Amino acid sequence: MKKEPILYVVVPCYNEEEVLEETTKQLKVKMESLINKKEISAKSKVMYVNDGSKDKTWEIIKKINKKEKLFTGVTLSRNRGHQNALLGGLMTAKNYADIVISMDADLQDDINAMDEMIKKYKEGNEIVYGVRSARKKDTFFKRVTAEGFYKFMKFLGVDCVYNHADYRLTSKVVLDEFEKFKEVNLFLRGMFPLVGYKSDVVYYERNERFAGESKYPLKKMLNFAWDGITSFSVKPLRFICILGFVILFISIAIMLYSLIMKLIGQTIAGWTFLSISIWFIGGLQMISIGIIGEYVGKMYSETKARPRFIISENLEEKK
Ligand code: UDP
Ligand code: MG
To answer: Can you give the pTM of this predicted structure?
Structure first.
């Protein structure tokens, strides 16, 4: 761990022409103060990642880069979405940096939390997660759905940091290991805990977007949440199997009920046979689908080919 690490701040930008100037102004002050306090190296930079914007975002980034040596940028060949853009930025920045902090272009995540993130890194943490302490400024709908989502993920057994989005510090060591995760359906906030290493959290209050509109409309948000669930848990497949057993149990009850009804003569011809068959076959089919699901789930985790272990220290190499 270096006393004055080179920090790269990675900021994905999609149609953010309205916010870039203000963001640059605020980040410049922050970076300069961190450099002056000798918290970070003078080689530190902010790296904007243009995610195939349709407006002037890339032109503005190039202009800022010419004017300020503290700011640099990369552009994707087309729009690939926030998570891919962020990954592209992280993987590029790690070639130049010791630590990387990712944040949104609209500065909804308090940039003053960076000081504490760097402090926690210097205390020996390789990942520092930014966690929203309060969501006072979020709409009621956003707050309820977002918090419900994190709880649901936990219920599904996913190791996710509660109320953490993509505001986090990662060291180069972590990013080098992260590169081994080859999956294409990205849910970065769920993947970093898988890398392991010592980590900590920093709390901050989330602000409102100061200009421009959210680039995450409801449809994208739902898609993202769905990706998070299906990329991290095969439990939904297991539920099918459980449901099958429940239905099979019900079919036993129905069988008894139908037979009693038949014995007291309260039925019409063929009813007993039909009602028992429907429930029994239904349960059997559900279980069969569930069993196939179990194998699909296994295949799914095999194809993702996530690393099975990461060695963080090897005493043999330290001799
Ligand atoms: N973003 C991106 N590509 C996209 C959509 C969004 O790079 O296709 C960026 C966007 O520029 C911003 C960040 O992702 O820096 C988060 O988006 P936004 O602030 O609109 O989301 P919200 O805070 O409303 O969830
Ligand atoms: Mg935002």
So the answer is: 0.83
CA angle 308, 313, 315 (to 5 degrees): 125
Identify which of 11, 14, 27 to mutate to test ligand 1's pocket (most ligand atoms within 8 A of the CB).
14
- Number of H helices and E strands in the chain, helices first, is 10, 7
Ligand 1 neighbour 86 (Cβ under 6 A): no
Name the residue among 286, 290, 266 with its Cα closest to residue 278: 286
Beta-carbon neighbours within 5 Å of ion ligand 2:
104, 106, 108
What's the distance, CA 108 to chain centroid? Answer: 17
CA of 166 to the centre of ligand 1 (A): 10
Whose CA is closest to atom 11 on ligand 1?
A: 13
Rounded Cα distance, 175 and 286, in Å? 42
- Mean pLDDT estimate for the chain: 90
Taking residues 144-167, report their average pLDDT: 86
Residue percentage of the chain with pLDDT more than 70: 99
What atom in ligand 1 is closest to the CA of residue 214? 20
Q: What is the CA radius of gyration of the chain?
A: 26
CA distance 195 to 98: 17
- The predicted structure's pLDDT at residue 100: 97
Residue 205, both tokens: 């209050």
Q: How far is CA 207 from CA 139, 160, 191, in A?
A: 11, 22, 25
CA of 105 relative to ligand 2 center, distance in Å? 7
Per-residue pLDDT of 63-116, as tens digits, reads: 999 999 999 999 999 999 999 999 999 999 999 999 999 999 998 899 999 999
Instruction: Tell me the backbone φ, ψ of residue 233, rounded to 5 degrees.
Output: -140, 135
